[in-house]
């Protein structure tokens, strides 16, 4: 793969895209660059205040952008359903790009509105439900893609199928790693099921390497751990690449021609740099685990995937 950058993004005119967590960081950059290339983009964000602020900022940076904000709380399945049901006026029966970007990292133990451990519930289950609810639009759209943002920290742990909600024990970083492994297992199984259905929708994954965003400081700030927050901020300044660099993997997976299903795209050296195919732990390609996680996710969210093309 060449040293891919935003100049390689093909024209996106006429395409409809949804980017979760688009109010800041990687999601904002992803939404901005897609809009800059002509896509119509929904900024799907939990906070109305931050979402509308991001919308105004993006329109100032890209005056020709066709963008709008819509509320989406991935930690609340009712919000996910409401968001999906309200999209008809935006993209009708088609959807070209779904960018599952939003996430939380290394939080003290919390639960979602539906009682799931927050990292697993937000990072995996929320996006699992959203993708399933939007699948008919994706299947009806030639060239559609689903890109789910994982992390190199997936190497911290495989999922624990016997304790998906970390009820037996909880370690914030292991729980984060499990949620990011779940993202890759989801992508793997989604790509497999799309292939079985003879669908041309591409499911791929991406990671940002070490990118300077608000994600790293959220957990320590929630606990008012000021010393830890200063250490994280120092690491961000000295080592991390900016969000513009971190978003390249996502943008590449979403728009580069001939993207391979189940690809995992991230910085060339793992932490920063141009996008390339990335290392992933062997357990994220374990078909048995992926299928069992899928079944459990359908049961937990109540969302059943239907791979029949609408109207076919």
How is this fold's topology laid out?
Elements: E1 16-20, H1 25-36, E2 40-45, H2 48-61, E3 66-71, H3 77-85, H4 88-91, E4 97-100, H5 118-139, E5 145-149, H6 172-196, E6 202-206, H7 215-222, H8 226-238, H9 243-246, H10 248-255, E7 264-267, E8 275-277, H11 287-301
Parallel strand pairs: 1-2, 1-4, 2-3, 4-5, 5-6, 6-7
Antiparallel strand pairs: 7-8
Helix proportion: 40-55%
Q: Distance between termini? A: 36 Å
Query: Given the C-alpha coordinates, what overall shape results?
Result: globular
Beta strands, count: 8
Binned strand content: 5-15%
> For the residues shown, what is the average pLDDT?
92
Largest sheet: 8 strands, mixed
Structural class: alpha/beta
Q: How many individual helices? A: 11
Q: Which runs of at least 5 residues are low in confidence (pLDDT < 50)?
A: none
Going across the major beta sheet, what is the strand order? 3-2-1-4-5-6-7-8
Rg from Cα: 18 Å
General description of the model:
By secondary structure, this protein is of the alpha/beta class. It contains eleven helices and eight strands. It has an eight-stranded mixed β-sheet, sandwiched between helices. Strand 7 and strand 8 form a beta hairpin. Helix 5 runs parallel beside helix 6 (172-196). It is globular, with a radius of gyration of 18 Å. The chain starts with 15 loop residues before the first strand and ends in an 11-residue tail after the last helix. The mean pLDDT is 92.
């Amino acid at each position: 793969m060449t040293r891919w950058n935003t100049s390689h993004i093909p024209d996106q005119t006429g395409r409809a895209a949804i980017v979760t967590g688009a109010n800041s960081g990687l999601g904002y950059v992803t939404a901005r660059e897609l809009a800059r290339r002509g896509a119509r983009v929904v900024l799907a964000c939990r906070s109305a205040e931050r979402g509308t602020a991001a919308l105004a900022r993006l329109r100032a940076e890209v005056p020709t952008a066709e963008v709008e904000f819509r509320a989406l709380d991935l930690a609340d399945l009712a919000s996910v359903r409401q968001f999906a049901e309200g999209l008809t006026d935006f993209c009708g029966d088609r959807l070209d790009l779904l960018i599952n970007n939003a996430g939380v990292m290394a939080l003290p133990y919390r639960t979602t509105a539906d009682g799931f451990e927050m990292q697993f519930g937000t990072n995996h289950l929320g996006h699992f439900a959203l993708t399933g609810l939007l699948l008919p639009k994706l299947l009806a759209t030639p060239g559609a893609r689903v890109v789910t943002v994982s992390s190199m920290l997936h190497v911290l742990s495989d999922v624990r199928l016997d304790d998906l909600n970390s009820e037996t024990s909880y370690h914030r970083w292991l729980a984060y790693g499990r949620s990011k492994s779940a993202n890759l297992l989801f992508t793997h199984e989604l790509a497999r099921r799309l292939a079985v259905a003879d669908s041309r929708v591409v499911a791929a994954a991406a990671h940002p390497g070490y990118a300077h965003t608000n994600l790293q400081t959220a957990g320590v700030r929630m606990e008012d751990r000021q010393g830890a927050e200063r250490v994280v901020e120092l690491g961000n300044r000295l080592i991390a690449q900016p969000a513009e660099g971190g978003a390249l993997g996502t943008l590449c997976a979403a728009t580069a021609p001939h993207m391979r299903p189940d690809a995992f795209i991230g910085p060339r050296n793992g932490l920063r740099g141009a996008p390339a195919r990335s290392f992933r732990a062997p357990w994220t390609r374990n078909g048995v685990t992926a299928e069992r996680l899928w079944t459990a996710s359908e049961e937990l969210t109540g969302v059943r995937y239907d791979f029949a093309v609408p109207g076919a």
